[in-house]
Design a protein that fits this description.
By secondary structure, this protein is α+β, with helices and mostly antiparallel strands. It contains twelve helices and 22 strands. The protein has helices at 18-24, 35-45, 49-53, 76-90, 160-166, 177-187, 192-195, 218-232, 302-309, 404-414, 452-460, 471-474, and strands at 2-3, 9-11, 57-65, 95-104, 109-119, 134-145, 151-158, 199-207, 237-246, 251-261, 276-287, 293-300, 327-330, 351-361, 363-366, 378-379, 384-385, 393-401, 426-435, 440-448, 463-466, 477-478. The strands form six sheets. A five-stranded mixed sheet has the order 3-7-6-5-4. Strands 8-12-11-10-9 form a five-stranded mixed sheet. A hairpin with a 5-residue loop joins strand 1 (2-3) and strand 2 (9-11). The longest helix has 15 residues, at 76-90. The termini are far apart.
Length: 486
């Protein structure tokens, strides 16, 4: 303490090891926030989406929030894509502010307190028409950081109703009665005889789906749906997951799921496959001033549904002798110029083109040579695709037109013995892929049967998740004592 000429203290300097004292009573200073968590926060809030955010979190990172707009979102993948829609599409020019951040090393949890600002000027599917109103909404992210340093879980705390009120997103109005009755009449297979009571006589129909491309009227669609629900799939049923009404555009929206088994013949369709489908879809019904529906648009991934019941698309032109819809998508060592291609040139003689999966999948590749497939002669970095749609990357590979006998030969190489067989190394199912030409086809694809071991390798850091398997990864010596397929 410095004492002035009057004898009073006019300055104090304290020498104190505060950290030592704080440690004694458990007052520890906040640790620095892990870099991956910070990067994830900024990538998400700026609308970069999963493509950028996937670099900073685990592939199966979970998400939760007690907020109405987010109640159906359970993965960070889905949330970052939702946030991209808000920040880039619905509210272009939006901004955010990081008010505070901290890290608790005991629970390995990073906390971010932010404020998001934006004006609703863009059209985003599933949201009201642009209100041109602004929001300034506060929220907190609690991000759990895994031992690898990446985020594996996010919990968002957010008063969504307050934000919605700011931009004029009000609760949906009651759905008009005729629209509701039309939905139920159509899905239960009542046909035009019942549906016509709830729509105008010339009600139009539209769908960007291959089986429905020639149907232009609700009359035609109601009869088509009757054939599916009553004739081809007797005993089918449906679930109405959600419904809403937008009074500004006079549009009723229905989100449904249809369940059925193809057990009977219907003209224009393949022979009964006795396979089941569970397919989701949305109807957007425009309601005329008279209260009846005058237009329906159906949004439906028909190729996905067709794959479930074995309804495959016709072969591409220029592939004579190929059974309808028989395509094979390879992401590994059977691609052109790769080690196993030459041994299967006969099965792979009809190259169609380079393609990418329509959904992300984890393509796991070990960092060192390792091949557990007893039917593959090479000790190389074996690629394995996991049947976990929505995680990983859009995988790049090649598509070939194949015959049934070709597929049997490929089954031998991949160790596939039949559906749910206990000895399967891989299992095979149909997935939609997108060719570079822009055409979508259904193709056979092999997924690893027991993915627990491969997933563990990824978590340990001895394997990596990649969007493409390259030729340098496929190089390898013959396995010691190789004598042929097991």
């Amino acid at each position: 303490m410095h004492v002035n000429v009057q004898g009073k203290v006019n300055g104090i300097t304290k020498v104190w090891h505060s950290a030592w004292a704080a440690a004694q009573v458990g007052w520890t200073p906040p640790s620095s926030v892990p870099a991956y968590a910070e990067h994830l926060f900024h990538a998400c809030e700026s609308g970069k989406g999963w493509r950028e955010c996937s670099r900073y979190c685990t592939h199966d990172a979970a998400f939760s929030a007690q907020a109405e707009p987010l109640k159906g979102i359970s993965t960070v993948y889905a949330y970052t894509e939702w946030m991209k829609g808000i920040a880039v599409v619905a509210m272009p020019g939006s901004s955010y502010e990081l008010n505070a951040q901290s890290f608790d090393p005991k629970t390995s949890t990073a906390t971010f307190f932010g404020t998001f600002r934006g004006t609703h000027t863009g059209h985003l599917h599933g949201f009201p028409a642009p209100t041109h109103k602004s929001m300034e909404t506060q929220y907190v992210y609690n991000m759990h950081v895994a031992p690898c340093g990446k985020v594996d879980r996010i919990t968002k705390v957010w008063h969504s109703a307050w934000a919605a009120a700011q931009v004029g997103w009000t609760s949906p109005m009651d759905v008009p009665s005729d629209a509701q009755q039309l939905f139920h009449a159509c899905e239960s297979g009542k046909g035009w005889h019942e549906v016509k009571h709830h729509c105008t006589r010339d009600a139009a129909f539209d769908a960007q789906a291959e089986p429905l491309k020639d149907i232009k009227t609700v009359h035609g669609y109601a009869e088509w749906m009757k054939g599916i629900a009553v004739v081809a799939m007797p005993g089918s049923h449906y679930v109405l997951n959600a419904q809403a009404f937008d009074p500004k555009t006079q549009t009723a929206t229905f989100f449904g799921t249809f369940h059925g088994i193809h057990s009977r013949y219907l003209e224009g369709f393949p022979e009964p496959t006795h396979k089941s489908m569970e397919t989701q879809y949305v109807y957007c019904m425009h309601v005329a001033p008279c209260g009846k529906v005058d237009r329906i648009t159906k949004v439906w991934h028909s190729a996905w549904a067709a794959a479930q019941v074995g309804w495959v698309r016709p072969a591409l032109q220029g592939s004579p002798g190929v059974h309808a819809g028989e395509y094979y998508f390879t992401y590994g060592s059977l691609k052109r110029g790769f080690p196993n291609h030459g041994k299967h040139e006969e099965e792979l003689s009809r190259f169609v083109g380079v393609a990418t999966t329509l959904e992300p999948y984890p393509l796991i590749v070990p960092k060192e040579p390792s091949c557990t497939n007893p039917n593959c002669p090479y000790l190389h970095r074996q690629p394995t695709l996991m049947d976990k749609a929505g995680l990983g990357y859009y995988v790049r590979g090649e598509v070939y037109a194949v015959k049934a006998d070709d597929v049997k030969e490929l089954d031998v190489l991949e160790g596939y013995h039949g559906k749910k067989h206990s000895d399967n190394v891989y299992f095979r199912r149909m997935i939609p892929v997108l060719l570079e030409s822009g055409e979508e086809v259904l193709a056979h694809c092999y997924f690893i049967a027991d993915h627990a071991e491969k997933w563990a390798e990824l978590q340990k850091g001895v394997a990596e998740c990649l969007p493409e398997y390259t030729s340098d990864m496929a190089v390898g010596e013959l396995k010691p004592g190789w004598s042929g397929p097991a």
